[in-house]
Amino acid sequence: MTQDSISSSQTPRHVAIIMDGNGRWAQNRGLPRAVGHRKGVTALKNAVKFCKRRGIPILTVYAFSTENWQRPATEVRFLMELMKRTFSTELEELHREGARIRRIGDTKGLSDDILHMWNEAEARTADNASLLLNIAFNYGGRRDIVLACRQLAQLAAAGTLQAEDIDEDVIQNWTMTRHCPDPDLLIRTAGDMRVSNFLLWQIAYTELYVTDVLWPDFDDDTFAQALADYAKRQRRFGRLNDTDSE
Ligand code: IPE
Ligand code: IPE
Ligand code: MG
After folding, report:
1. What is the best residue among 18, 20, 41, 193 to mutate for testing ligand 2's pocket, by most ligand atoms within 8 Å of CB?
2. Could you say which of 22, 46, 68, 221 is catalytic?
C-alpha cells in the first residue's frame, strides 16, 4: 500500500508502539539479547523517520517498563547504558530530524546521570516541531495513574480542588501524557496479545494492532501495513455508524 492510498483523515495523529521481541530476535540467531536491543535502536530510528515522512506528528514508544527492573541486573545495566549511548550518538540526528523528545515515566529509581541525560535531550530538542517523540522509560500505566492520584489528593488536602470537580479532563491533565492527545493506534510487535502496563488510561479507545514481526525487524513495510489496517477501522467510540439504521 502506498502513502497516497491512505487519506490524511485516516492517518493516525498519534501512534504508540510496544517495541517487543528484541531478546527473541537475538536468541533466534544464537546471539546475546544485548545484540537484539542494539538492533532495536536502529528500528526505532527508522520508525521516527517513517512517521515524519508519513505526516504522523506524535510517536510514543515503550522503551523500559516499571516491571523491567525485575530482569537480571546485567540486562538492566545494559539497557541503561544503551539509552545513554544512544543519546550521545543519535541525539543530534534526532534534533536535525526535528524531533522533540519527551520522557514519560517515573523519575524514582533512575540514576542522576540518566536523569541529567534526559533533561539535556528534552532541552536540546524543546523547540522542534516536526515530530513529538515520547519515550516511555521507567514507565508503567498504573504508576502513571497512581502519581496523578497523589497530585490530586495533595490539591484536595490543600483545599484547591473539590472532590466533585474531579472529572476525566482533570485526571488526564495530571497524567504523564497531558501534553498530547490519546494514541489513535497502538502497535505491539512480537505477537503477544497484551498491553503490559503501557498507557492504560490513554488507550481507552485506541485501535490495537499486533504483528508477529519482532521489533528489530520492524521496517517501513510493517509500519505501512499497520497504517493500512488502521485506515480500514471504523472507530465508533460507543456510538453507531452513520449508516446504521435504528
Ligand atoms: C523489548 O524486547 C525491549 C524491552 C523490554 C526493553 P524484549 O527484551 O522484551 O524481548 P523479548 O520479549 O524477550 O523477545
Ligand atoms: C513490554 O515488553 C515493555 C517494553 C517493550 C519496554 P515486556 O517484554 O517487558 O512485556 P511482557 O513481560 O512480555 O509482558
Ligand atoms: Mg518482551
Report:
1. 20
2. 68
